[in-house]
Amino acid sequence: MTNHTNADTLRTPIVAVLGHVDHGKTSLLDKIRGSAVSEGEAGAITQHIGATDIPLDTISGMAGELIDPTDFDLPGLLFIDTPGHHSFSTLRARGGALADIAVLVVDVNDGFQPQTEEAVDILRRTGTPFVVAANKADTTPGWNPQDGQPIQRSLEAQSERAESMLNENLYEIIGQLSDAGFSADLYWRVQDFQKNIGVVPLSALTGEGVPDLLTVLMGLSQRFMKEEMQIDVQGPGEGTVLEVKDERGFGATIDTVVYDGVVRNGDQVVVGGQEEPIVTEIRALLQPRPLEEIRTEKQFEKVAEVGAAAGVKIAAPDLDRAMAGAPVRIVRDRPVEDVVEEVKAELAEIEVETADNGVVVKADTLGSLEAMANALREAEVPILRAEVGDIAPRDIAVAETANQDEHKAILGFNVDLLTNAETELESADVKLFTDDVIYQLIEEYETFVEEKQRAQQETVLDKVVRPARFRILPDHTFRQNDPAVVGVEVISGTVQNNRNVGLFEGNEFDRVGQLSGIQKQGDDVDEARSGERVSIAIDGPTVGRGIEEGDTLWTEVPEKHAKILEQELKEEITADERETLSAYLETKRKRDPFWGK
């Protein structure tokens, strides 16, 4: 990459805004756009596809005395509007995050929420520098709004009570950042932004604190990213797909953020696709019409070229298999095979490990697919197939082929169920889980698996012979044989009807007969628990021959059952049954050490 130092070759830093779903991400972006429009003439602001470009003079107009434009040689800021709060993680540029810098929006009253945690996790993983926008400061009880003012100017107008309530909430957020492993403070107290995260209290509604946010973003970009912003202005364009969309008159198009070089109409382009990279030719580059012309029929106008950094809609044949989050590369004076290899290599970094057995995973973008795969790996859930896109009939067919019931599942992150798949799902033995918070999706699945395993254990438990030992009470022979009927006390375990019983002669188990009835206080029952006294009928022996009053008898546990009880169901049986089982196994193993193993 050639190293130009003159200002016009520094590209605009790309800023992503993320945060929990209703913490004010969109209203903050709208406020920045709106103030920018009223600040400069409308023409100063260029709306891009999926992005808003705000030039330096407009920013300095909004930030007032906070910014001296002569301190900066960056052209401004490009805010990308990431579809979905999380898909930021997808948006990569050569292995790093696409965004140079991020704003994490947190509702000052609500603090960290599940999606905030997730966003912080992504920022940590990608190493993206970020600023926290503590939004909704104006909802502090007793707040006296100072529209559009820098936050410290606004704080001077507040009562002590309002200021201390706001501070309490801000310190709560600073504490939550610290729990997440980031040292943070109010931005005007931060000496070194590389070591500490700046927290900017603001209001997307009144615009208070918005000047501060822009100042901090410009300062950070200028200080730490100047090198990264130096690009080869005329080089072949490189970008990332934000979204794949069907547009009337153009077919499938890709909303793209270009972060390097230039893209021209007619260029040959390689785009990451669902199976193979797509090689095609650009038919049109589309930008939204300027704000003042938005009333005209057509919402887009064609442009001849775009240079980084910019958001643009690319129309070209064969884009219907393109993927959100995939790389976009202009070929220009290079062999097309090399560019295809480059794109393949980049996609390979995002490949998900799949197993011969496991669940089916669908996600809206490559990055969220990757995040899902990481989270499932941590949860030790195998993946049979992982793809970007909505849930289609073939996903259901694949999920049905899983060998284990608990793997007959589809985990869909931020995707829809296609209409033709709905009917399939009704008749298929497949469970669908969908959510837009990754860890909640995985928790739902894990709960389902636990319930399934519990149900399986319960059915096994119903069929397994339970261990028991019981003593024939003296003077309690009611009938000597055919069947022998005696009174017994259950010492431990559960005596069940129709089980074989016997006694140990030394370490030899000697079967004496089978239980054919249990009576408790004159009523027939199926089982008797530890400590109960019941009368039992035993087919086979005669009292006085084979069994005697005072003998201790045991339920005979088949070897296979003993193994299941000891290895799988130990937690499911009662403490006294466990104790009986251990004593039974111990005696059996004195003769054969490997019995029931």
UniProtKB/TrEMBL annotation:
HAMAP family: IF_2_A (MF_00100_A). Function in general translation initiation by promoting the binding of the formylmethionine-tRNA to ribosomes. Seems to function along with eIF-2. It comes from Halorubrum yunnanense. SUPFAM superfamilies: Initiation factor IF2/eIF5b, domain 3, P-loop containing nucleoside triphosphate hydrolases, Translation proteins. Belongs to the TRAFAC class translation factor GTPase superfamily. Classic translation factor GTPase family. IF-2 subfamily. This is Probable translation initiation factor IF-2. Keywords: GTP-binding, Initiation factor, Nucleotide-binding, Protein biosynthesis. NCBIfam families: aIF-2, PRK04004.1, small_GTP. InterPro entries: EFTu-like_2, EFTU-type, P-loop_NTPase, Small_GTP-bd, T_Tr_GTP-bd_dom, TF_aIF-2_arc, TIF_IF2, TIF_IF2_dom3. It comes from the Archaea. GO terms for molecular function: GTP binding; GTPase activity; translation initiation factor activity. Residues 10-226 form the Tr-type G domain. GTP binds at residues 19-26, 81-85.
